[in-house]
Design brief:
- The longest helix is centred in the N-terminal third of the chain and has 37 residues.
- The protein has two domains: 86 residues; 234 residues, BirA Bifunctional Protein, domain 2 (2-Layer Sandwich).
- Helix 1 runs parallel beside helix 4 and helix 5 packs across helix 11.
- The protein has twelve helices and ten strands.
- By secondary structure, the protein is an alpha+beta fold.
- The two termini are 86 Å apart.
- The strands form two sheets. Strands 1-5-6-10-9-8-7 form a seven-stranded mixed sheet, with helices on both faces. A three-stranded antiparallel sheet has the order 2-4-3.
- The structure holds 3,4-dihydroxyphenylalanine (DAH).
- The site of 3,4-dihydroxyphenylalanine has 11 residues, from strand 9 and strand 10.
């Protein structure tokens, strides 16, 4: 047996060993059941009793030495694997971070929220109604019978209807007034923000826009309450003291009816492009609910009266942010929308 030769064979095998699997193979070659060192041990039996202890000791020392080298190699390989894994998973902490793009609320959403907050604080409840509406709730029940000229003024989108009733895209949120009167007990105070549709498109009109309707029915509702409420609302919305004026007007569902102007919130009345040099901005329609509208809903008009108003949310948003073209609100250009974040 040449101990030095065997050890140099082990050393040779280990220098080219690059994986733990290869190392297992080397270990088996030398220390396994049929390994070189094991074979030597097997031959001990053939020696005389006098030679055996010394030979045994030499082979055991050899076995120990082989094992130590293999273990050392194993440690080196494992260490290298850890280093490689660390290198592979390295994070460059000096890289700039990835930005998470944060959205912002749409100016119409902001305006609606501000309005709803004001009216909620004044005791109003939010009501919603369908955007595909029937002819009865959008017109007839609001005192606009068929062939009434007011129907023609509304540029209505009609929808093919599989039913007996005529269907349309609601032209105003006043339809929700009727649905409220049908389902809620008086006294009541509701606001109904929502989308409405008219076949119209230019600088100040889009086929879809937003309205907010208000309705109060009580034993003591008066025109003075209506005016006071609208003034308070205007000051809250525009964040400034406002002056309003009511001009007589006509709506089939209110009597008397009025158009409300607010002193121009941009030039405070001196005259500018937005108020067309008049000093006033026309912002909403209102009036005392027509007795026939209340009566049709089964409300005793000797006991109860009501007032209502309707405004264009988009117009208010345009005025408060000085947006020149209504269509910008619906173009979804992020450069425009980002300004409201
Ligand atoms: N519905 C009307 C429109 O769209 C606005 C309106 C006027 C609503 C007077 C009202 C009201 O409730 O009383 O032009």
């Amino acid at each position: 047996m040449d101990k030095a030769l065997i050890l140099s064979q082990v050393a040779n095998a280990l220098t080219t060993c690059s994986s733990l699997t290869a190392l297992e193979k080397i270990k088996a070659d030398f220390l396994g059941k049929k390994g070189v060192v094991t074979e030597l041990l097997k031959q001990l039996g053939a020696l005389s009793a006098a030679e055996r202890p010394l030979a045994g000791q030499v082979i055991n020392e050899l076995k120990q030495a082989v094992l130590e080298r293999i273990e050392a190699c194993k440690e080196t390989l494992e260490q290298a694997a850890v280093t490689a894994a660390l290198q592979r998973d390295t994070i460059d902490v000096s890289l700039p971070g990835r930005n998470v793009a944060l959205g912002s609320r749409h100016p119409i959403c902001l305006a609606t929220t501000k309005m709803v907050d004001f009216f909620k604080a004044a005791g109003f409840v939010v009501m919603e109604g369908p955007e595909i509406e029937d002819d009865y709730h959008n017109f007839t029940a609001l005192n606009v019978p068929e062939y009434h000229p007011a129907r023609a003024m509304h540029d209505t989108f009609y929808v093919n209807s599989p039913f007996d009733v005529k269907l349309l895209l609601r032209t105003h949120t006043s339809s929700v007034q009727i649905r409220t009167l049908e389902t809620q007990a008086v006294p009541l105070r509701v606001i109904t923000p929502g989308r409405v549709y008219r076949c119209d498109s230019d600088l100040t009109h889009t086929p879809m826009f937003h309205q907010l309707e208000g309705l109060v029915v009580d034993k003591t509702s008066t025109f003075a309450d209506l005016k006071g409420l609208l003034l308070a609302f205007m000051q809250d919305f525009f964040n400034q003291s406002c002056e309003i004026r009511l001009r007589p007007s006509y709506f089939p569902f209110t009597e008397p009816s009025a158009e409300v102007d607010v002193r121009c919130v941009l030039c405070t009345g001196t005259g500018c492009r937005v108020c067309k040099q008049t000093g006033w901005l026309e912002v909403l329609g209102c009036g005392m609910v027509h007795p026939s509208v209340l009566a049709a809903a089964g409300i005793d008009t000797r006991e109860y009266s009501g007032f209502a108003f309707g405004l264009g949310i988009d117009r208010f948003a345009m005025l408060s942010h000085q947006i020149p073209d209504l269509r910008m609100l619906f173009d979804n250009d992020v450069r425009f929308l980002r300004q409201f974040s």
